[in-house]
Design goal:
By secondary structure, the chain is mainly α. The protein has helices at about 1-55, 60-100, 100-110. The chain has one domain (about 1-110).
Length: about 110
Amino acid sequence: MFNQFEDLQKFNKDGIDLAVKSFGSTTKNVQAIATETADYSKKAFEQSSAVVEKLVGAKTLDKAFEIQSDFAKSAYEGFVAYASKLGELYTDIAKDSVKPYEAIISKVQTAAK
């Protein structure tokens, strides 16, 4: 009976250790997402401010349209790059969160066979 209790305690301890590892990696990746979002927001604000200054200084309507279309193109490209980076970071969260549990899953699968 004591062996079963000790096995249960070890199983619980291992589960808690795995949860802590998983939480730690998730926290690291969430911080990376927050940093990336803050950087993108800062960069987008700075670019928008620069475009407004250029638009105010535009002498002709054609020049204003050129400035606006250049800004739209660069804003789109910047957003696509940002979205791609976020996609990678979210994928990393999923992979890193599951990684600590892979050993237990393989043990269970081996034991089930």
